[in-house]
Amino acid sequence: MFEVIERRQDGVHEWVAISCTCDLANPRDELVRSTAGLVRNAYGEDVIVEAWLAMEPDPEIAETFTVDHLVAGFRMGLPNPASEGNKPPQLTNYRSESAEMLARGALACAFESLQFLIAPQGGKLNPNQPILGFDGWAIRATEEQGAALVLVQVKATSVLETPPPESSVLAEECKRLPRQKGPIARVLSVMAKHLPNGQMRSAVLRMLTRLGSGELPALVVAPVLIRGVGSSALADLAPIVDVTADFHPAAGCGASVSLGVDLNEFGRKVMDAARAA
Q1: pLDDT tens digits, residue range 10-30?
Q2: What residues does 224 pair with on adjacent strands?
Q3: pLDDT of residue 145
Q4: Which pLDDT does position 62 carry in this prediction?
Q5: How far apart are the first and last CA of the chain?
Q6: Contact by Cβ (8 Å): 131, 120
Q7: What is the 3-state secondary structure of the chain?
Q8: If you average pLDDT over residues 177-202, what whole number do you get?
Q9: Which of 59, 123, 218, 238 has the highest Cβ tally under 10 A?
Q10: Is the per-residue pLDDT at 194 higher than 80?
């Protein structure tokens, strides 16, 4: 499903080019199904199901309603492509969030030390509106610094040129990330509230404490370029690689991911699959 075709390490920075296999004509395409699963997970389906199963429901309710009804009700609230009207395709939320989920899957495949523990989508009141802030968060275990906070920024493009213009936009965004202390504090606060007691929660609390003392926690900036048609290559990331000195003190961990199909159609199929009961 994900194949790393190029990899390079420049000191503390790591870069990969990834190719995906996707067949939109196949109703059970593995990439569509797995990305739809990440959408459900990002909005908290697994947490809600676990809460239901842990309950001791009223016998009358238990005879009438099942976990399938719970899941069906939950999925009604997921992003709905049909609700986005006549937006230009590149501005639709189903396209952008599907790209963000694809980036999450690709990064987790390429960098095994990344753990996506809490997704930002769960707090959205309107699933068809974009999230303001970082496009994703993860924790990465490092031998040198222990746990590091990973800030993911994603851009999707249908442009064939290498590097595409979106790569320069990503480069400028990534230069700003290590200095956005307010958004970093909110990410850590959300994670600290929602993670169970344990090693990861302790690590996040230590990061938040360090931020409050005037120091940045260990950070990793993770830019991801999602290509629809066209092939991915490390050359796609050249504008980002050129500005890694401005990431300091953060390390870089980026990817160019080729999907091989139309981004808009992929996003629509992913969200329709995520909503299916």
Answers
A1: 999 999 999 999 999 999 999
A2: 154, 255
A3: 64
A4: 67
A5: 24
A6: yes
A7: CEEEEEEEEECCEEEEEEEECCCCCCCCCHHHHHHHHHHHHHHCHHHHHHHHHHCCCCHHHHHHCCHHHHHHHHHCCCCCHHHHCCCCHHHCHHHHHHHHHHHHHHHHHHCCCEECCCCHHHHCCCCCCCCCCCCEEEEEEECCCEEEEEEEEEEEECCCCCCCHHHHHHHHHHHHHHHCHHHHHHHHHHHHHHCCCCHHHHHHHHHHHHHHCCCCCCEEEEEEEEECCCCCCHHHHHHHHCCHHHHCCCEEEEEEEECCCCHHHHHHHHHHHHHCC
A8: 93
A9: 218
A10: yes
User: In whole numbers, what is the pLDDT of the chain averaged over residues?
Assistant: 93
Within 10 A of 257 (CB to CB), how many other CB atoms are there?
26
Please give the Cα distance from 152 to 133 (Å, whole number). Answer: 10
62 Cβ neighbours under 8 A, 6+ residues apart: none
pTM here is: 0.93
Q: Which two tokens stand for residue 113?
A: 């030390």
Task: Find where tokens 């302790």 sit.
Answer: 202
Q: What is the mean pLDDT of residues 248-276?
A: 96
Any bridge partners for residue 148, and if so which? 140
pLDDT in tens, 130-162: 887 889 999 998 776 689 999 999 999 999 999
Long-range contacts of 57-64 (CB under 8 A, 24+ apart): none
